[in-house]
């Protein structure tokens, strides 16, 4: 049975066997993720239906994450027969495109070119996909950056990423803040050349393109979750700097004028009200909590194992930056504040711990 919490746009064609009940769950899932649903009403003895089958496979693969492609044999089960009857299917193949749970177009016959154009048009109207796992995807990319460089380089890379994200959040309608030239040496030296550096931007939604014979990264749509991710990233960077020996920082990051962001650092974004992105960010925290337990030194190395002598333990005490337990949040906090404190602590564990 389909579940409305599952992502069905995984790059393959689904087979519907349970009629409208199964379809309703898929439509609910797709609506929450800003995805289209393409439903092919077909029968096994239909020649044009068989001709269209490989085209559906291609469409599912090409539009992974954006389009749920479903094939339904209208004669296979009683539930499918009932759904076909309610949809007034009188010819095969009949294809229906759903957007936000509603039928927006019906096509009949095997016409791949018309089908592709219809999908392109409706995706443009639907807008960008909602990435419920933005924080998790970005954390995975950042872990690659951390593993491939020194602690100082990681701080600079994180600040560079925060600078780009901050200028996008503060200037969402300015195209110049949503384009990065891959030839820009400042970007390459601080973030782009590091393992996982470019992936961080791709996870945010940037896409690689060629404009005027030059490779660039372009962000067409600003994810709604980007403001909360920026807030967590800035908090983690701030705390990471305080772990450095002598309290020294890595310095403010500026980017060349021909490749924004500008020199002024972006202000910290305030916490947002609990919602789907916060829920998934909390899932990120739980994933990290089990494996990130040892504070990192200023050079990025793991802290040595505690000695049995009181003196050695006392020397190591300052390197424990925070109390990483849930109880670190004061009991007087309401649930919302407790959740943010707990999430903030876990994100810092990711950036500072191995």
Written description of the protein model:
The protein is an alpha/beta fold and 354 residues long. 45% of the residues lie in helices and 12% in strands. A 5-stranded mixed sheet has the order 1-3-2-4-5, sandwiched between helices. β4 and β5 form a beta hairpin. It is elongated, with a radius of gyration of 25 Å. About 25% of the residues have low confidence.
| Quaternary state of the chains | single chain
Helix/sheet category: alpha/beta
Strand content: 5-15%
Helix fraction, binned, reads 40-55%
> Distance between termini?
40 Å
Q: Radius of gyration, rounded?
A: 25 Å
Number of helical stretches of at least 4 residues: 12
Average pLDDT rating: 74
- The overall strand count is 8
Outline, from the CA principal axes? Answer: elongated
- Secondary-structure element string: EHEHEHEEHHHEHHEEHHHH
| Unreliably modeled segments | 247-336
Q: Which strand order do you get reading across the main beta sheet?
A: 1-3-2-4-5
* Largest pleated sheet: 5 strands, mixed
């Amino acid at each position: 049975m389909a579940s409305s919490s599952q992502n069905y746009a995984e790059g393959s064609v689904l087979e519907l066997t349970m009629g409208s009940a199964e379809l309703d769950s898929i439509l609910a899932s797709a609506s929450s993720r800003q995805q289209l649903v393409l439903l092919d009403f077909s029968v096994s003895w239909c020649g044009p239906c068989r001709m269209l089958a490989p085209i559906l496979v291609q469409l599912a693969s090409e539009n992974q994450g954006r389009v749920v492609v479903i094939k339904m044999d209208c004669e296979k089960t009683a539930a499918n027969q009932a759904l076909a009857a309610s949809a007034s299917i009188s010819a095969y193949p009949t294809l229906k495109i759903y957007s936000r749970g509603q039928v927006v177009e019906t096509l009949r016959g095997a016409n791949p070119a018309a089908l592709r154009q219809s999908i392109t048009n409706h995706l443009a109207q639907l807008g960008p996909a909602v990435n419920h796992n933005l924080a998790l995807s970005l954390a995975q990319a950042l872990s690659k950056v951390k593993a491939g460089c020194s602690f100082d380089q990681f701080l600079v890379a994180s600040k560079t990423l925060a600078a780009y994200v901050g200028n996008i959040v503060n200037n969402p309608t300015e195209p110049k803040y949503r384009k990065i030239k891959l030839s820009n040496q400042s970007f390459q030296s601080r973030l782009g050349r590091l393992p996982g550096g470019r992936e961080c931007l791709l996870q945010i939604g940037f896409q690689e393109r060629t404009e005027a014979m030059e490779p660039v990264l372009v962000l067409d749509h600003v994810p709604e979750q980007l403001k909360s991710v920026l807030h967590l990233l800035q908090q983690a960077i701030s705390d990471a700097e305080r772990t450095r020996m002598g309290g020294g920082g890595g310095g403010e990051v500026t980017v060349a004028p021909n490749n924004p962001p500008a020199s002024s650092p972006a202000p910290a974004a305030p916490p947002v009200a609990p919602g789907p992105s916060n829920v998934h960010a909390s899932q990120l925290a739980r994933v990290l909590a089990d494996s990130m337990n040892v504070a990192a030194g200023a050079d990025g190395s793991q802290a040595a194992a505690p000695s049995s002598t009181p003196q050695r333990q006392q020397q190591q005490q300052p390197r424990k930056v925070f109390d990483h337990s849930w109880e670190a949040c004061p009991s007087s906090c309401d649930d919302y504040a407790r959740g943010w404190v707990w999430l903030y602590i876990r994100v810092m564990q990711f950036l500072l711990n191995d």
